[in-house]
């Protein structure tokens, strides 16, 4: 029988983890409205600036993920997680106070540099689970992402521009008129701040003293002899060979997801005349919220699917299912412009497409997390392996938005889309 997971620590883990997807997705509904920062007067070039804004977070996270993962192997998971939560909270408040494009970029860079929690939390989860309950434990990661990616866009869509959306409540607020996106960012900061408080009070350290000592001793040996230095440096910077396939699989997954996450809000907010959907921020938030709901539903299928196909087989199958639906999304602009399709029918079809994509994407992500953990078992480098995995994802997420933004801007300028 599977070993029971520690309920108290799992609750604390959930409080700490859920803030990150909320903080990451709150920006999506109003990402198109970066025009408010007076960065460009040409909406056809907007994709370039949105891409750079999205990439700034990933570039900085690429630089910080491996150091944070390695540091967690030395000093423990708990202090690194607390630092990440604090950094996320501060960067959200900074983003809400943005009045220029460079200020927004700085806030996203700060968020990436100060937060290496994804990889460290995967390490923590791997240390409080075993082979008998790993699928159940790691299904919690995408579950929290599903919940967070539901809440984040709803907060971002419903609370942005509150002085305009809710004039009776906030119409007289000079502050919220000057900073129209502060309220959603501050709300998310309160959630991550709560996670910091709960973790500070109740999160237990999972890195054993023996594991930490072995890592430190390896580092001391590296400095004591040339041969040991060579071996240790290879062990530190070049993770075991069996870890690379899942790391690269995660990088390819991240590349696909970040381009979708960037382009969908831009496309949805683009006027129908330019082959978009003409959505407002709250409508984008609703659509992305549905995505999060179905991401959560996908977890009902993960454990039996993982047992039947294995993590590698499930990953391949999920991506094969994912690809066709992405090719169908552009046709929704034609449905929106068609007089023969009612709005309820349009939303019904859109929700089906979003559900299809969300289920396949989250199954692939869940399988990926298990593959990384399995590849690192039997080594004393779990934190480093997860740090390298996060670096690879961050690099893909840094490259993806500029490419997606350039392709989008080019397609708009040439009227290809």
TrEMBL record:
Annotated compartments: Membrane
InterPro entries, A to Z: MFS, MFS_dom, MFS_trans_sf, Tet-R_TetA/multi-R_MdtG-like
Protein name: Major facilitator superfamily domain-containing protein
Lineage: Eukaryota, Fungi, Fungi incertae sedis, Zoopagomycota, Zoopagomycotina
A molecular function (GO) term: transmembrane transporter activity
Alphabetical list of CDD domains matching this protein: MFS_SLC46_TetA_like
UniProt keyword Protease present: no
Gene3D superfamilies: MFS general substrate transporter like domains (1.20.1250.20)
Coiled-coil ranges per UniProt: none
Transit peptide in keyword set: no
Residue ranges annotated for the Major facilitator superfamily (MFS) profile domain, each copy included: 1-417
Species for this entry: Thamnocephalis sphaerospora
Transmembrane segments: 12-34, 46-68, 80-97, 103-125, 137-159, 179-203, 243-261, 281-302, 314-333, 345-368
Membrane topology: Multi-pass membrane protein
Main subcellular location: membrane
Pfam families (alphabetical): MFS_1 (PF07690)
Cellular component aspect of the GO annotation: membrane
Keywords: Membrane, Transmembrane, Transmembrane helix, Transport
């Amino acid at each position: 029988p599977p070993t029971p997971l520690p309920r108290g620590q799992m609750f604390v883990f959930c409080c700490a983890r859920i803030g990150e997807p909320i903080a990451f997705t709150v920006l999506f509904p109003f990402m198109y409205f970066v025009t408010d920062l007076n960065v460009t007067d040409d909406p056809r070039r907007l994709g370039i600036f949105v891409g750079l804004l999205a990439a700034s977070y990933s570039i900085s996270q690429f630089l910080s993920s491996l150091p944070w993962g390695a540091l967690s192997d030395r000093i423990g998971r708990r202090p690194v997680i607390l630092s990440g939560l604090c950094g996320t909270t501060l960067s959200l408040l900074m983003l809400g106070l943005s009045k220029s494009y460079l200020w927004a970029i700085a806030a996203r860079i700060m968020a990436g540099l100060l937060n290496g929690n994804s990889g460290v939390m995967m390490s923590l989860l791997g240390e409080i689970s075993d082979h008998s309950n790993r699928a159940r434990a790691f299904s919690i990661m995408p579950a929290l992402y599903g919940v967070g990616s539901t809440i984040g866009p709803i907060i971002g869509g419903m609370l942005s521009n509150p002085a305009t959306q809710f004039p009776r409540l906030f119409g007289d607020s000079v502050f919220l008129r000057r900073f129209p996106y502060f309220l959603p960012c501050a709300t998310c900061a309160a959630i991550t701040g709560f996670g910091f408080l709960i973790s500070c009070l109740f999160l237990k350290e999972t890195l054993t003293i023996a594991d930490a000592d072995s890592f430190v001793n390896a580092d001391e040996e590296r400095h004591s002899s040339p041969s040991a230095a060579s071996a240790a440096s290879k062990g530190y910077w070049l993770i075991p060979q069996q870890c690379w396939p899942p790391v690269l699989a995660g990088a390819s997954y991240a590349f696909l997801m970040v381009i979708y996450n960037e382009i969908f809000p831009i496309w949805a907010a683009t006027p129908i005349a330019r082959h978009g959907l003409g959505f407002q921020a709250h409508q984008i938030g609703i659509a992305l919220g549905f995505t999060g709901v179905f991401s959560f539903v996908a977890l009902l299928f993960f454990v039996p699917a993982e047992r039947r196909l294995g993590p590698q087989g499930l990953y391949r199958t999920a991506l094969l299912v994912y690809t066709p639906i992405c090719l169908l999304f552009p046709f929704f602009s034609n449905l929106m412009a068609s007089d023969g399709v009612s709005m309820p029918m349009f939303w019904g079809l859109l929700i089906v497409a979003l559900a299809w994509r969300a289920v396949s994407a989250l199954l692939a992500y869940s399988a990926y997390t298990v593959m990384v953990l399995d590849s690192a078992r039997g080594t004393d480098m779990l934190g480093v392996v997860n740090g390298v995995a996060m670096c690879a994802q961050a690099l893909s997420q840094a490259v993806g938005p500029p490419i997606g933004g350039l392709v989008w801007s080019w397609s708009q300028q040439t009227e290809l889309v």
